[in-house]
């Protein structure tokens, strides 16, 4: 519970106070570090598990691989996957292969990511194809991304992200007829882009924000703070990545969708209300859009 709420220190304190620990509690703590991309502490716990003769299981290795993926530790992830099979005699499941696809994809090793999918002994699911599609979007690999997006739609015909990805690919290639086909398909299916929602708790009260939200009681203060933050980011070289929104939106709509993202609004409200140096916890229903800082 503490880990899911971002309270890693409290999670570790609760873990340390336990008189008896089993593979479930060890794996939960490893998973807590994994969510934050703290591969070092996750791996340290694995070694501590071994020293205390606690046998790892498949869940343990999902956490370890996930931690490596978040931290970008490709070689360490490869070693862990191999060790799971060779040293622990654990047969990889779909989620382990999914972690490897994500690990390679985030490192721009898209060929290796596809090879993992092709060599899986079971059929990849929509999450795995979606992971490859997301990596292709980040690194502008349109051909492989289109292939992955089509596999996503075969498994989930109502997947909004895959429709938008294909629409943007076709628009960039000026295949306007294909863009129209995708839009018509979305309309016929009733597919719309899932709206981002972010929540922040302050003084025991939950504040919820939507993208381009104008309904909060302190809306003027929030947008004023957001403008100030964005100005500072632009000075530092901030450039919004517009690949996550529909290509044929006008520039103003794209800017609003990116800069007025629900998470950014929640963050600015936290900056206004929380003490300097305190930790801001934001709960999201979607991943935040990718942003880029260039020097």
UniProtKB/TrEMBL annotation:
GO biological process, one term: RNA modification
N-terminal signal peptide: none
Every DYW domain range: 237-289
A molecular function (GO) term: RNA binding
Repeat is among the record's keywords: yes
PPR repeats: 22-56
SUPFAM superfamilies, alphabetized: TPR-like
Coiled-coil residue windows: none
One Pfam short name: PPR_2
InterPro entries: DYW_dom, E_motif, PPR_At4g14850-like_plant, PPR_rpt, TPR-like_helical_dom_sf
Similarity annotation: Belongs to the PPR family. PCMP-H subfamily.
PANTHER family: PENTATRICOPEPTIDE REPEAT-CONTAINING PROTEIN, TETRATRICOPEPTIDE-LIKE HELICAL DOMAIN, DYW DOMAIN PROTEIN-RELATED
Name recorded for this polypeptide: Putative tetratricopeptide-like helical domain, DYW domain protein
Protein's organism: Helianthus annuus (Common sunflower)
